[in-house]
Amino acid sequence: MYLLDTNVLSDATKRRPSPRLLERLSAVPVELQMTASVVVGELIYGAERDRPNRTERLRHIEEAIAGSLTVLPFDTDAARRYGWLRAELERRGERLDDPDLQIAAIALTHDLTVVTANTRHFERIPGLRVENWL
Questions:
Q1: Res 67 pLDDT > 80
Q2: Burial letters for 74-109: b for 16+ Cβ neighbours within 10 Å, e otherwise?
Q3: Prediction pTM value
Q4: In CATH, what is the architecture of 2-131?
């Protein structure tokens, strides 16, 4: 099962998405494709910043992403994992932005592979499986 990161969903909703990404997405049943509430928040943030296209982008997020994918919350179990991960990475001198840590914590909590173009960020996280479909 897969947790789709912000850059993957953002690419998938472009006018001309990556053919490689579309091929991979179509090969994996939608019930095995998930995302995180943190990712939805990042997508909404991007739409809110794009004033001229705000309404269209927000509608698209609701219909194409939030309406068709399972959206996993940043809950207490993920928060515990996040706290441990953040402390561990800081001990090693390897900081990671909070949204990426929260996404990783949700993926680890649900035993999911993170699909992202930012493999360099996520590969530092112990036990996390990462794939790049772009």
A1: no
A2: beeebeebbeebbeebeeeeeebeebbbbbbbbbbb
A3: 0.93
A4: 3-Layer(aba) Sandwich (3.40)
